[in-house]
Specification:
This protein is an alpha/beta fold and about 250 residues long. Helices cover about 45% and strands about 15% of the residues. The protein has eight helices and seven strands; from the N terminus they run βαβαβαβαβαβαααβ. The longest helix has 29 residues, at about 105-130. The radius of gyration is 17 Å and the shape is globular.
Length: about 250
C-alpha cells in the first residue's frame, strides 16, 4: 500500500475529484479526513469508506474560514496523532470574461480557490513540521498555466494556487515539507457538467483537447496519489499536468 501509515486531509472531499481521491487514498492505506461543507455527502462517503474496510472521518470545512481549517487540522491530529498529507481540492468555477465578471464573483472565486488553499497550507505547516515532514498537494488547473477565452477570475485564482505552491515549497523544504501542484484539464465531474451543460458546448470544448475527450476523476486521483506518496520524495515545487494535452497546444 502506497500510503500505509499516512494521515491525509482532503478539502472538497465529499464529491467529484475529492471523493475519488479520498476513496483511493483509503484503499492505499491512508487514514482520511474528508473536509467539506456538504455534510450529507461527506458523511455518506465516510460511511462507505469505513464499510469497505478503510478509515475515514468527515469534518465540516468551509475553506474560506481560518477557524474551520484550524478545527479540521486539530481534529485530524487528535483522532490520528499526526497529519502527513494535505490535498487542497476544494474549488469553484465560473465561465466569464473580464468584462462579464462581477466584483462579487471575483471575490467569491478568489476566496475559495486562492484564499482557501492559502489557509489550508498555513494550517498544516506546524503539524507537518512536528511529524517530521509532509506532502502538500494543491489542485490548480491547466487554467493556472495558460489563459482561456471563457474564464478570467478562475484563471487568476488557479495561477495564484500555482505560485503559492512554489512559495511553500521553497520556504518549507528544510522542514521536510513538500508542496506540489496538480493541473487537471476538463474532468468529467459535476463542475464541468454545470460549466458545459449542453451537448454542443461539451463537443466544442472536447475539440480543444488533443486527447479528444474529457478526463476521468480517477486519472487525476492517481496523479495526486503519486505526488502525495513517498515515491515523489524528491519532488517539490513541481507541477503535474493531467489535461489530455490541452496546455500543449
Amino acid at each position: 500500500m502506497r500510503l500505509e501509515g499516512k494521515v491525509a486531509l482532503i478539502s472538497g472531499g465529499a464529491r467529484g475529484m475529492g471523493a475519488v481521491e479520498a476513496a483511493l487514498f483509503a484503499e492505499e492505506g491512508a487514514r482520511v479526513v474528508i473536509g467539506d461543507i456538504l455534510e450529507v455527502e461527506g458523511q455518506k462517503l465516510e460511511a462507505e469508506i469505513n464499510e469497505a474496510g478503510g478509515d475515514a472521518l468527515f469534518v465540516r470545512l468551509d475553506v474560506t474560514s481560518e477557524e474551520d481549517w484550524d478545527r479540521a487540522v486539530d481534529t485530524a491530529v487528535s483522532r490520528y496523532g499526526k497529519l502527513d498529507i494535505l490535498v487542497n481540492n476544494a474549488g469553484v468555477y465560473e465561465r466569464a470574461t473580464v468584462e462579464e465578471t462581477t466584483s462579487d464573483s471575483w471575490d467569491r472565486i478568489m476566496d475559495v480557490n486562492a484564499k482557501g488553499s492559502f489557509l489550508g497550507v498555513k494550517a498544516v505547516i506546524e503539524p507537518m513540521r512536528q511529524a517530521g515532514g509532509g506532502s502538500i498537494v494543491n489542485i490548480s488547473s491547466g487554467a493556472g498555466i495558460v489563459g482561456s477565452r471563457g474564464t478570467s477570475a478562475y484563471n487568476a485564482s488557479k495561477g495564484a494556487v500555482r505560485l503559492l505552491t512554489k512559495a511553500a515549497a521553497v520556504q518549507y523544504a528544510a522542514d521536510g515539507i513538500r508542496a506540489n501542484s496538480i493541473h487537471p484539464g476538463p474532468i468529467d465531474t459535476d463542475m464541468v457538467n454545470l460549466a458545459f451543460p449542453s451537448p454542443d458546448e461539451r463537443a466544442e470544448r472536447v475539440m480543444e483537447i488533443p486527447a479528444g475527450r474529457f478526463g476521468r476523476a480517477e486519472e487525476v486521483a492517481y496523479g495526486v496519489l503519486f505526488v502525495a506518496s513517498d515515491e515523489a520524495s524528491f519532488m517539490t515545487g513541481g507541477e503535474l499536468v493531467i489535461d489530455g494535452g490541452a496546455t500543449a497546444i
